[in-house]
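Replying to the earlier thread about multi-chain prediction with a worked example.

Input:
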Amino acid sequence: MASRSEIIVRFAGEGGQGVVTAAEMLARAATGVGYHALTFATFPSQILGGPTWTQARVSRTPVESPGDAIDILVAFNDVAYHEHRTEVHDGGIILLDPSVTPLSDEHLRCVTVPFDELAKQTGESRAANMVVMGGLSRLINMPVHYFKDFVSQRFAGRDKVVEANHIALDLGLAHLAEEDPISDLGEPEKPDYEQVFIKGNDALSVGALHAGIEFYFGYPISPATPILVYMERNLVGEGKFAYQASSEIEAITGIIGAGFAGKKSMTATSGPGFTLMGEGIGLAWMAEIPCVIVDVQRGGPATGLPTKTEQSDLNAALSPAHGDSSIPVIAAGSVDECFLATVHAFNWAERYQGPVILLSEHSLAERAQNIAKPDLAAIPVESRNVYKGENGYLRYESQEISPFPVPGGAGAYIANGSEHDIYGDTTHLAKYHIQMTERRFGKLKLLEGTYESDNASASVAVIPWGGSKGSAREAFQQLRSAGVDIAWYYTMFLNPLPTALLDELRSKDLVIVPELNYQGQFASVLRSQGVKAEAITQYTGLPFRPTELGERIKARLAGAGQPQAVNA
Amino acid sequence: MASRSEIIVRFAGEGGQGVVTAAEMLARAATGVGYHALTFATFPSQILGGPTWTQARVSRTPVESPGDAIDILVAFNDVAYHEHRTEVHDGGIILLDPSVTPLSDEHLRCVTVPFDELAKQTGESRAANMVVMGGLSRLINMPVHYFKDFVSQRFAGRDKVVEANHIALDLGLAHLAEEDPISDLGEPEKPDYEQVFIKGNDALSVGALHAGIEFYFGYPISPATPILVYMERNLVGEGKFAYQASSEIEAITGIIGAGFAGKKSMTATSGPGFTLMGEGIGLAWMAEIPCVIVDVQRGGPATGLPTKTEQSDLNAALSPAHGDSSIPVIAAGSVDECFLATVHAFNWAERYQGPVILLSEHSLAERAQNIAKPDLAAIPVESRNVYKGENGYLRYESQEISPFPVPGGAGAYIANGSEHDIYGDTTHLAKYHIQMTERRFGKLKLLEGTYESDNASASVAVIPWGGSKGSAREAFQQLRSAGVDIAWYYTMFLNPLPTALLDELRSKDLVIVPELNYQGQFASVLRSQGVKAEAITQYTGLPFRPTELGERIKARLAGAGQPQAVNA
Amino acid sequence: MTGTAKNPEYDFLWCPGCGDFGVRRALEFAMRDWNIEREIPMHDNVVVAGIGCSGNLVHLYEGEQPYGFHGIHGRSLPLALGVKMAREDLNVVVVAGDGDFLSIGMEHIAPQASRNLNICAVIMDNGVYGLTKGQSSPTTVEDTVTSSTPYGKLESSLNPLDLYLTLGVTYIASGYSTKPRDLAGLIKRGMEHDGFSIVHVNSPCTTYNDTYALLKGNKAKGIDPLAWEIPDDHDSTSKSAARGVIEQGGVPLGVIYQDDSRPSLDQRLGAVRERVTGRSAEDLLNTFAV
Amino acid sequence: MTGTAKNPEYDFLWCPGCGDFGVRRALEFAMRDWNIEREIPMHDNVVVAGIGCSGNLVHLYEGEQPYGFHGIHGRSLPLALGVKMAREDLNVVVVAGDGDFLSIGMEHIAPQASRNLNICAVIMDNGVYGLTKGQSSPTTVEDTVTSSTPYGKLESSLNPLDLYLTLGVTYIASGYSTKPRDLAGLIKRGMEHDGFSIVHVNSPCTTYNDTYALLKGNKAKGIDPLAWEIPDDHDSTSKSAARGVIEQGGVPLGVIYQDDSRPSLDQRLGAVRERVTGRSAEDLLNTFAV
Ligand SMILES: Cc1ncc(C[n+]2csc(CCOP(=O)(O)OP(=O)(O)O)c2C)c(N)n1
Ligand SMILES: Cc1ncc(C[n+]2csc(CCOP(=O)(O)OP(=O)(O)O)c2C)c(N)n1
Ligand code: SF4
Ligand code: SF4
Ligand SMILES: [Mg+2]
Ligand SMILES: [Mg+2]
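Result:
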């Protein structure tokens, strides 16, 4: 039996059948013993029931995307079987309840396990999950005690539940005792660093707490709601405030009030709420108030596709409001970056005294993954330069950034969303509009981000952004292995773009931007800045598959120089 | 005394001194006898009083911008005198009340007229205006009966007012009887076509009425309020609705409801209100509902500069909401175009079944000008293709535009802001998101606008947009007269841009975009579409001066090829 | 896949026991009767839906289909205003949840009340944000623990009926989703009323805020039901009587208030049209002639 | 150029006779006394202003300057919430107009009332949109002709006092701009009240809606004044007495309602903090440890 470095398992069925938790459990158990794992989930918008599937990719080495075709499909019902069977690659396995009648697929192996029946035997009918896991432990050749240990830990103190689940695991395993495993995943190598297994939204929330968030105000919206829920629970204590707003307009304006009052403040939303926040974001830019606005993107436009992933809010993030403004935008591209980018967002907001937009997306928000535990002591946190002088301070006198007066201390002024003079009073004089406009844009110079590159000497390059990073990175590695001479660039800092990165990109003959939207939004931004950029787009509500993306990049390179349609 | 083809008069003082109406009166009277005239006004945000000035440019030939330095300054008070005297060109005249003590300006002629004192003699103390006009009639050598006739007409039936004003005119004239005129404007040549003297906002409103507007809903905001006021007064009758909304969010959503119900609907706002409309505009795009959104731009961002002009809402117009969308944008560049562009906006909305954004700006909105009376019969009006079949229609089945079902008739469906299937029901299936996204963008192909060009063979070009058209056109003409080989392009249709225009622009070595914003927003858009565009920007709250702009273009041409800073 | 009679691919369904099933049924009854009485086709009706579990009613509507508009969160009222004032002949019904209508959509109630916009809004109040999985809403009871109020809700809950009355809504009824026949009557009367009608329905969320037991009460255990029938002798034309009903607390069932004296917005506009005639674009253009 | 003592270049001034002059004076009195009593510096006060003639008060404030925030139209309440809940020690006062507060800003009143946010809002009601030159506002009287209602306003006007009472605002006072001393007292009491306070002021617009004569009445001509003093024996702790005052119509002057029993949001949060302790980012991160 060939050994392999990774395996992808998909669980598909109805909401309520344990589909949602199955992938997470597999991934969590696997990381517990030293594998690397990453989940992908897509939900129905229906509350109970409705078609749903999740997937776990388990590997001996770190993984960065949900991956390509699946190795094992666990189909909980007929519809799920028919919906997903074509995505199992040749030689793969489909695990079914006997109630499902499979087609004859020559290149697939169908294995039946009576999920519910065996579960009932344990006395805990909700243990169907565990029966599946037991069977899986055989099929992927993973010692069943990994799962047992995980169960013991998870349900510690609830002995009856532990026992039933252990029995279920054994029953599932026993049922497939004679079945050949799909392959041998090999012994995991436990990383020698501390790890956390965490979802993107949680990483983002903890990042905000590390950055020193003091004020959170948000309105529920998928897929950003978990951030609200986390904050409500954990942002407590003297001088701290986490609260549900009555609308996104209230949320954005509220955090601006708090930013004005000296607090590190944040709100999180998704597309529709983000659009409603536009006027407020413009106000924060104009009045020079630090705050962080998180947009966990879903499919758009309008109410759009609330439970699907997309990267189509970049244009809106770059120009959320009328008038001249250029709001800094940072986009997380992985679960680690959900943490890091949030700290950066706060640091930037404090440093340049203005709003910062943090983009995440559905697939990252719901992705659970093992990552190296962030070394908090090593991740610097910045706070604004507070004015400490006497009264009579002219807040907006200088052409550059100036210390920030905090109410309750000296330096009273008027923060103003109308064009203002050095006192903060409303003015219509051209000289002040010129001065203040240049002041606002000038402060952006303080924000210089970093970027990564690989094989930078190649004349063509690929640069993904946000959550397409992982798929693109894997595609890039495949291409490099296949001998393709292409450069890799990546940055979280979309606005302002790192100047050195821009210089490098401008020198390329072609820069390919894989992105999950129709318009090729980031490619268009790069072109406007003098880069010969072309997008590779996908607008299915799902992430790129690395191998497919690699093929598309290769095809694009072959056609380079040919005119490329631009989606306006 | 040298004859000249035009003269620019500026009136400066406090609100309430008749400053606001003076320029309009001069222009109106001048056009009445066959001159061409154009006004410019800038208001204080204060309701009564506050520094304000207006200006009229009167010419024997058509004019397209407020012009350059001024010939005659009428300063109603000390502050106004000091504020504006430097803008009078050598040999110009300053007309003052004796209460103002002028500096000794060698190259300027100061002429005093006791405005208020003479006015009082007429028995109508508010006639100071007319005293000034009488004096002006001497200084610009314009028969005083032009003004008298105008007064007789304007105040027809109110004999006492007419008489007092006539006396005031005579007194002003008599007072300056000995004064040399600045020059001879020469006899006007009355155009042989019908004319109207109209402001941009009124032209826009009448344009909407010609286009067949049936539903107007708007919230007051400068400088768009006059459109609301005009509609409230004039959009009456069976099936018609004009009403004040309680907010911009209510306004945009209301017109979408009306568009869905089969009506031609519109709202008008300015920057802050426009930003609030973003979510609604995204909805109209998604649900495929025709409607027109007017943004009469003022200075931004946030509450910004409500009474100043700027062209800084283009970015916001091009991406007013999250998700993939590309809302059509038409920008008026002159008072005639305020009329025309509005008709086009409705036609486009009806044709492609979606929202259209119409950009105007403060300087156009308040510009009063003589234009050829639009020949309504010659300006085609389009209406949507209404579904006339049976029930059971699948509204969104086709990949392309499909007939529009109107409630009250067969074809019931669900207009939906969530991604939907062919029935209009919410869906999460990738196949529908792909189909509907392509359908929405595909419909843009129906919108092909026109453009103008001049000396198109030159390798460098200038292309202004919106209200900078006039200044840029005059600068262009000056440059051409000076032998500079530069091409001229212009279009009202900013999105989608006419494809042939884009092709032409892409072939140029340099395309210069004069625009009234900091970022060079349109230049950036052009670069993203493959044009070597560079902006010439101004962000003073005032329009370009043609000669100054010409100089800047010349300087840019001299430096062409040198790297150009891009405002991010 | 669940599907509807019209659309086999439609994949949303309410949770078992969700109150919204009953509200849908009631609306179907009311609209059917409305159409029959007037001999009008179903396509003269428009259902404007909010975003929430409740708003999905527009897709789950059974039988012959009215027009529908499923827009954006919180904006059902201004959408309905657009439809109604564009086409005064249509029967326009709003269906929305408590979060949609009373939180993010709050700003839109007062203006429609002042205008007496002639539509009927059916509000499905479950005291929770259902679709986003259980956060608190304006009508969530004080101190309740929800996912967004882990330490208890710190706000007093809003009394929507009291608010409607104060704002001048001219038809106010309160209903319960388990009584679709009664509810249909309240809705139909709201559609018939010339002015702004709100039928506020208690429509429990079995998944996040199951209040059936509370509403029904339990005689055996001596727990009084929250829901109670408004007595027949209640004078629904009296504002103070209406206030009295509301102040008794609980969930009154029936018509609380009806004011037929105030003209609706379309009627008032009609009066203006009799006084004022519009002019053609050509005429208006001529007013600017040089 | 007008200028202020602080800023010689500032170029906005209210029209002669504008009621807002008196409101400014009243606020200055109230804040001065507030500071003196507490021996606190002026910079412990924050004035959050709406957009309108009224909001410009924040720039025209004379003498020592409080902090100010002049934001965007309609959003003074959520801005104030941000300031207050960020810094519970500050005295936060909102100044806004009827259009700002009751039209575009309408959605923000109910949530603050439910939360009992501890701020004091001073509303300058002139029954018109002043700054945009005379359009109708929610409090404009029905049938009034304004630039945006050329054929008369077709809506009934909103009664803000009644609305505040219904929403549960815990301190409601009504004042008149010509009585800055009295008004100062109402404002100061509002600042002292632990909870959401609204001082609703009739502040006439001499340019677009001059109601001085109506408010004052004319004894000689037998015209009763609109404004009337609330009698000393009014029980402002009683909701029904408060409703009675409001239902008498006109413009009552004085404190209409005060409820000191409901804790304010900051007090309630304080109680949660006593029960629940937050954890450090490091601790929270460890809950995800593999
Ligand atoms: C602008 C915007 N904000 C937030 C959301 C997310 N969202 C969808 S439904 C909903 C609340 C639903 O609650 P309710 O109106 O009570 O309806 P229910 O589901 O309880 O029937 C929210 C917050 C959204 N779609 N759009
Ligand atoms: C989002 C937005 N919409 C509209 C405006 C224009 N605007 C400025 S003030 C105002 C109304 C002012 O009325 P009110 O609040 O009553 O204040 P007043 O001037 O009467 O004191 C409006 C509509 C704006 N600044 N922002
Ligand atoms: S979550 Fe609640 S409101 Fe939504 S469908 Fe389920 S029971 Fe109904
Ligand atoms: S317009 Fe009215 S509200 Fe505004 S400053 Fe003048 S009088 Fe006061
Ligand atoms: Mg609800
Ligand atoms: Mg007002």
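Chain A touches chain D through 70 residues (CB under 8 Å).

Feel free to reuse this layout for your own posts.
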